[in-house]
Amino acid sequence: MPETGNQSLARYLRQTIFSGLGEAGQRRLLAARVAIIGCGATGTVIANHLARAGVGYLRIVDRDYIELNNLQRQLLFDEEDMRQGLPKAAAAAIKLRRINSEIEIEAVVTDVNPGNVVQLVQDVHLVMDGTDNFETRYLLNDVCVKLGKPWIYTGVIGSYGVSQTIVPGQSACLRCVLGQMPAPGTTPTCDTAGVLGPAVAVVASISAGEALKRLGQFGEPNRGMLHYDLWDNSLDVFDPGGPQADCPACGQHDYEFLNAERGTHSITLCGRNAVQISVNRGADDATVLNLARLAQVLQPLGAVRANAYLLKADIDGYHLTIFPDGRAIIAGTSDPDVARTLYAKYVGN
Q: Of 39, 144, 173, 190, which residue is the catalytic one?
């Protein structure tokens, strides 16, 4: 458990003298456990705020590595992180430990899927959405509704963003509000509509503030869906009401995203000419790919670089990034069939 003596509390003086929080609220923050799922634009802002505020345990989960275009808005990363080929979760944890050495930070480099999501969120008090896709958000909604875990949805695109605190059994869940998951190509993405760094910072900061309210047990959390547009200077709150009886998740307890079958699946990464190959495995499967051995196998085929977190290889005009959990991002194609063929050829089944 984090140290909660007077010396530790001195760090948070400007928070504890705030009448809404006080010393008692700060001690609750120090005892709190949070999982941040996704550590890109919104996730880095949320993680930064919660670490500085003294949330005692942060589990940072992200599947990706740092690229040059991330630095415009992903506030915990720099050019050296990119040169070192660090995964986002690992680089974020290193930075946050320098910011606050008195809290516990766990970095998990993995793709969140039905096989591991329960293990990732079951022992925390709050789940924060730092993801960039609806498939993972609907999965988070399923698992949080099933386990009764509060979570905060955060999404930003262009100059516009949304934040919603979801408390299972009390507020409408994400599926109540949005219905069926939007079909691919029907909603804008950062790659098609762009995104402004300040808009990310504002909306993610609102979500971080909502997290502090809930964890510190002070103030009145926002139970509606907040909409903010930096360009239009507009701020609105939509009240979606309570849980809906006809909602598949919180009304009928049909968790179709959580109950997806295990196995390998692929996702085309929009705007990157790349495909991610993932392996859905149960929590009891802890198989780890030996990257050093794989690097030796691939070395004769092209340029290979590896560290403790990932392996990168340039082979036959494709760029492969392979992670210890067996996941791979294959750049140079947007065709899932081609990507699966390359995966089988160079990584195995």
A: 190
Q: Are 347 and 298 in contact (CB under 8 A)?
A: no
Tell me the C-alpha distance between 128 and 93, whole Å: 16
| CA pair distance 59, 106, nearest whole angstrom | 5
Ramachandran sector of residue 76 (left: φ over 0; alpha: ψ -120 to 50; beta: rest) = alpha
b/e burial code for range 58-78 (CB count within 10 A of at least 16 → b)? bbbbbbbbbeeebeebbbbbe
Within 10 Å of residue 179's Cβ, how many Cβ atoms?
11
Q: How far apart are CA 81 and CA 88, in angstroms?
A: 9
How many distinct helices (H) and strands (E) make up the chain? 13, 14
Alpha-carbon gap, residue 9 to 17, rounded angstroms:
11
Q: Within the chain, where are the H helices?
A: 6-10, 13-16, 22-30, 41-53, 79-83, 88-99, 117-121, 134-147, 174-178, 190-193, 197-216, 291-298, 336-346
Query: 205 is written with which tokens?
Result: 């900061």
Going 325 to 90 to 272 to 175, the CA torsion angle's sign is: positive
Active site residue 250: no
| Cα 173 from Cα 145, distance rounded (Å) | 8
What is the Cα–Cα distance from 108 to 252, expressed in whole angstroms?
32
Instruction: Print pLDDT tens along the chain (349 aa).
Output: 444 555 578 999 999 999 889 999 999 999 999 999 999 999 999 999 999 999 999 999 998 889 898 999 999 999 999 999 899 999 999 999 999 999 999 999 988 889 899 999 999 999 999 998 888 899 999 999 999 999 999 999 999 999 999 999 999 999 999 998 875 545 666 755 789 999 999 999 999 999 999 998 866 666 689 999 999 999 999 998 899 999 999 999 999 999 875 445 667 776 688 998 886 655 555 668 889 988 988 998 999 999 989 999 999 899 999 998 888 999 999 888 788 778 877 887 5
Instruction: Identify residue 313 by its one-letter amino acid code.
Output: A
